[in-house]
């Protein structure tokens, strides 16, 4: 299984929704504390080395997340540590990039997510407690959602309902929003500690998973949100990202500060179905390919990006 | 921005108020439909009425109630009922188009909602007046008495003394004037003596002033030493406080009193937040937060400290000392052409697997390495035991078609499980295979729903896989190859 070594610490990895062999990686210098950032676009190749960089973009500040456009195959959205949101066209050379830069967030932008149903807008979540809604061709944000009492770590669109999204925050709540409504429509006090990530079940539009500093992943049904459907224990430290599989309805992938990537089936009693210990530092980014079933990628502070098929050893050559 | 012509009608801009039928399928699911719970509101009112809570920012009060599980409506109701003179709402929504029907947007109130300060403690006026009069009377009496006393004293003692002293001087003057004529030489002597005395006095004064200077310089030296020592102590205390702060960060989930004097680093540096309730779920009343340090959720924020890399610690301590890591470059990452045209999309957006139940490839053994799956579809982790993986395989192989079929527009009938291996064999004989091939070609040519065909084939492969033996495998992969080629040909990847 190929591995890519980046110059900076990895923060996020995302597969392209257009090209099954393409993925983007967000990295930050000095662990994202202080320094530059870099976005890598990687291509998988059948022969060795298996993965290679096709283009990269340097940024003045850390890049915490990237999101591929769902409407334009070469367009990327980047979430930066200086509060800016930048749009890149990977078909243009680096000197012509970025094509847009929006400076609205007052603090670090921690996540970006593109709307997979409407394909014309995207969300950014920031440590300034807000979530903003944008369209690529507009010079300013369309809406700002300000209700959380602390950093918002992630905002994720619902895969079935193009107006609904969820946000995970350090104020220990998950909020469900509808862009047609002025405020949040639901508040789920999911954990007793900061909630670092959330993701919707692609096959059950009312189910979402949250991961927290309390080392657990909880799976919720928004119709009865007082108690979770499942609590997934097994990580040794905070769970940084959680992702529902695009192909299997109950399969959840997660990565944690215990340096492992885990696979869970939340409908099964013994939920942990797989564990990968390939990273040697915090594992902070994870993605599952929408185009190729079973294909996964992860990145961590060890500056490595692994791409592998479920069932294979990521470190196997 | 040109939208591809074949995009489905469900894709509408969020700017319009159009609501298509598709979106309205379950709009209320994402809203709270619970009735308001009176007991929760009562608890909230008790909380909000607490004197300490009243001094905290509104957003913290709301956040605390949210974490206790109250809904928005319950929180709003509690705020409404508690007699709070300050503006209570926090919701701010900026809508640049102004097209949203903003029904319950409340203006952003002061975040620092403080009680009007009833600070001045005015003692009861009666008491004061009493004191005033009493004190005034007493003061006047005392003054009068003292005045009278001094007058008497002066009259009796001072004036006679004064008189006697004046008489004395006059007598002396008289005697002086008598002796003056004889005393001229003695005057000169006296002058000399006076001069000598003066010089002696001057030298005395000089000496004294010198001594004073000496002591002054000594004192200054002492003072400087003291200052140095103080400086050293301040340095030590600074480093101590840094260490404490670092330790605090690391043990973030321990019970902590939130200090109001937190240092906030400059915007460049991200240091962890320092507000945390108790570790084991017991509650504190509320979070008070006067300054928020910026935070990665990261390293220190666990109940057990996640050991972070040594170089991370090095960088953190470097920054705390005020140094900047040397590897940072000046980069201009602003758009060279802010009006750069966005590219025209070269590929049409692909359907998501959950939209159309697109059948995932079971065995792409002839594709590039990233398409090659483990032969046992359920074996996710190479570390899992074989027993578990087989169990999962059985589960998922039966679960998955059902899950995918739910989403599709037409549902092929569920094929019966294989009872007789011979039947599975019969399927794989050349004659039926040609039939299947023809189906594939026909389906591809007419551009109908490919996934239906492939799904059928998939089912064939699936239960032949579970019920059949190894001999059928070659032929199955042949069928798969056919469909793969069709897929590839169609999608033009």
Automatic annotation (TrEMBL), chain A:
Primary location: cytoplasm
Keyword Repeat: yes
The EIPR1-like beta-propeller domain, residue ranges: 152-264
GO molecular function annotation: peroxisome matrix targeting signal-2 binding
Gene Ontology terms describing biological process: protein import into peroxisome matrix
Biological source species: Raphanus sativus (Radish)
Subcellular compartments: Cytoplasm, Cytosol; Peroxisome matrix
Family listed: Belongs to the WD repeat peroxin-7 family.
Cytoplasm is among the record's keywords: yes
UniProt entry keywords in alphabetical sequence: Cytoplasm, Peroxisome, Protein transport, Repeat, Transport, WD repeat
Gene Ontology CC terms: cytosol; peroxisomal matrix
Pfam families registered for this protein in UniProt: Beta-prop_EIPR1 (PF23609), WD40 (PF00400)
UniProt protein name: Peroxin-7
Cited InterPro entries: Beta-prop_EIPR1-like, PEX7, WD40/YVTN_repeat-like_dom_sf, WD40_PAC1, WD40_repeat_CS, WD40_repeat_dom_sf, WD40_rpt
Function (record text): Receptor required for the peroxisomal import of proteins containing a C-terminal PTS2-type peroxisomal targeting signal. Specifically binds to cargo proteins containing a PTS2 peroxisomal targeting signal in the cytosol. Cargo protein-binding triggers interaction with PEX5 and formation of a ternary complex composed of PEX5 and PEX7 along with PTS2-containing cargo proteins, which is tranlocated into peroxisomes by passing through the PEX13-PEX14 docking complex.
Gene expressing this chain: LOC108821886
Residue windows of the WD repeats: 102-144, 145-187, 188-230, 232-265
Gene3D superfamilies: YVTN repeat-like/Quinoprotein amine dehydrogenase
TrEMBL record, chain B:
Record's compositionally biased regions (Low complexity): 291-309
Compartments where located: Peroxisome membrane
Membrane-related topology note: Single-pass membrane protein
Residue ranges annotated for the Peroxisome membrane anchor protein Pex14p N-terminal domain, each copy included: 37-81
One GO term of the biological process aspect: protein import into peroxisome matrix, docking
Basic and acidic residues composition-biased segments: 482-493
Gene Ontology cellular component list: peroxisomal importomer complex; peroxisomal membrane
Gene3D superfamilies membership: Winged helix-like DNA-binding domain superfamily/Winged helix DNA-binding domain
Coiled coil: none
Similarity-based family: Belongs to the peroxin-14 family.
Described function: Component of the PEX13-PEX14 docking complex, a translocon channel that specifically mediates the import of peroxisomal cargo proteins bound to PEX5 receptor. The PEX13-PEX14 docking complex forms a large import pore which can be opened to a diameter of about 9 nm. Mechanistically, PEX5 receptor along with cargo proteins associates with the PEX14 subunit of the PEX13-PEX14 docking complex in the cytosol, leading to the insertion of the receptor into the organelle membrane with the concomitant translocation of the cargo into the peroxisome matrix.
Name assigned to this protein: Peroxisomal membrane protein PEX14
Protein source organism: Raphanus sativus
């Amino acid at each position: 299984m190929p591995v890519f070594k980046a110059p900076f610490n990895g923060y996020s990895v995302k597969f392209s929704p257009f090209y099954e062999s393409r993925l983007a990686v967000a990295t930050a210098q000095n662990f994202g504390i202080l320094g530059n950032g870099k976005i890598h676009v990687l291509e998988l190749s059948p022969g060795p080395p298996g993965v290679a960089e096709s283009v990269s973009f340097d940024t003045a500040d850390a890049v915490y997340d990237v999101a591929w456009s769902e409407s334009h195959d070469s367009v990327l959205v980047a979430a930066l540590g200086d509060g800016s949101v930048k749009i890149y066209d990977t078909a243009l050379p680096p000197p012509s990039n970025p094509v847009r830069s929006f400076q609205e967030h007052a603090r670090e932008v921690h996540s970006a997510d593109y709307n997979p149903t409407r394909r014309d807008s995207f969300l950014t979540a920031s440590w300034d407690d807000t979530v903003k809604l944008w369209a690529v061709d507009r010079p300013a944000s369309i809406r700002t959602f300000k209700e959380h009492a602390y950093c918002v770590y992630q905002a994720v669109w619902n895969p079935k309902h193009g107006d609904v999204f969820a946000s995970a925050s350090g104020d220990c709540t998950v909020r469900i929003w509808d862009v047609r409504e002025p405020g949040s429509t639901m508040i789920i006090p999911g954990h007793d500690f900061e909630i670092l990530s959330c993701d919707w079940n692609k096959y059950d539009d009312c189910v979402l998973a949250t991961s927290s500093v309390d080392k657990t992943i909880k799976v919720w049904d928004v119709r009865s949100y007082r108690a979770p459907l499942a609590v997934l224990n097994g990580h040794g430290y905070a769970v940084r990202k959680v992702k529902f599989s695009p192909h299997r309805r109950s399969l959840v992938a997660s990565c944690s500060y215990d340096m492992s990537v885990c696979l869970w089936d939340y409908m099964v009693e013994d939920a942990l179905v797989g564990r990968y210990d390939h990273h040697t530092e915090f594992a902070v980014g994870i993605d599952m390919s929408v185009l190729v079933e079973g294909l996964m990628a992860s990145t961590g502070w060890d500056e490595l990006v692994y791409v592998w098929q479920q069932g294979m050893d990521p470190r196997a050559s | 921005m040109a939208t591809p012509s074949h995009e489905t009608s469900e894709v509408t801009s969020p700017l319009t108020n159009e609501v298509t039928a598709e979106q309205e399928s379950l709009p209320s699911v994402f809203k709270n439909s619970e009735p308001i719970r009176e007991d929760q509101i009562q608890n909230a009112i008790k909380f909000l009425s607490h004197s300490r809570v009243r001094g905290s920012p509104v957003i913290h009060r709301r956040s605390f109630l949210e974490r206790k599980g109250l809904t928005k409506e319950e929180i709003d109701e509690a705020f409404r009922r508690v007699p709070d003179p300050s503006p209570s709402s926090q919701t701010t929504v900026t809508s640049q188009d102004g097209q949203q029907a903003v029904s319950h947007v409340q203006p952003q109130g002061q975040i620092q909602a403080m009680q009007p300060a009833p600070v001045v403690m005015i003692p009861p006026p009666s008491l004061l007046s009493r004191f005033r009069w009493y004190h005034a009377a007493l003061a006047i009496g005392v003054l009068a008495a003292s005045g009278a006393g001094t007058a008497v004293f002066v009259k009796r003692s001072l004036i006679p003394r004064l008189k006697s002293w004046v008489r004395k001087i006059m007598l002396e003057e008289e005697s002086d004037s008598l002796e003056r004529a004889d005393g001229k030489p003695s005057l000169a002597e006296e002058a000399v003596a006076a001069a000598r005395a003066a010089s002696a006095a001057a030298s005395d004064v000089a000496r004294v002033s010198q001594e004073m200077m000496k002591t002054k310089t000594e004192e200054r030296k002492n003072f400087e030493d003291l200052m140095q020592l103080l400086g050293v102590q301040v340095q030590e205390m600074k480093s101590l406080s840094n260490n404490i702060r670092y330790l605090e960060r690391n043990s973030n989930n321990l019970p902590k009193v939130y200090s109001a004097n937190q240092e906030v680093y400059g915007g460049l540096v991200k240091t962890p937040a320092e507000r945390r309730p108790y570790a084991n779920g017991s509650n504190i009343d509320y979070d008070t937060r006067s300054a928020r340090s910026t935070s990665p959720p990261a390293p220190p924020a666990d109940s057990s400290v996640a050991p972070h890399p040594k170089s991370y610690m090095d960088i953190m301590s470097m920054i705390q000392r005020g140094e900047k890591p040397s590897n940072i470059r000046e980069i201009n990452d602003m758009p060279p052409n802010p009006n750069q045209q966005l590219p025209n999309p070269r590929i049409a957006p692909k359907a998501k697997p959950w939209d159309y139940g697109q059948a995932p490839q079971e065995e792409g053994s002839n594709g590039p390495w990233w398409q090659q799956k483990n032969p046992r579809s359920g074996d996710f982790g190479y570390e899992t035991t074989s027993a578990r993986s087989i169990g999962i395989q059985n589960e998922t192989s039966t679960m998955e078609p059902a899950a995918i079929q739910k989403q599709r527009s037409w549902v092929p009938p569920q094929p019966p499980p294989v009872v007789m291996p011979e039947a599975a064999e019969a399927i794989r004989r050349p004659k039926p295979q040609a039939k299947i091939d023809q189906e594939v070609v026909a389906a591809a040519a007419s551009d109908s729903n490919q996934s239906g065909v492939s799904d059928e084939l998939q089912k064939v492969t699936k239960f032949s896989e579970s019920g059949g033996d190894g001999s059928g495998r070659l032929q199955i992969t042949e069928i798969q190859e056919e469909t793969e080629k069709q897929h590839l040909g169609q999608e033009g990847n």
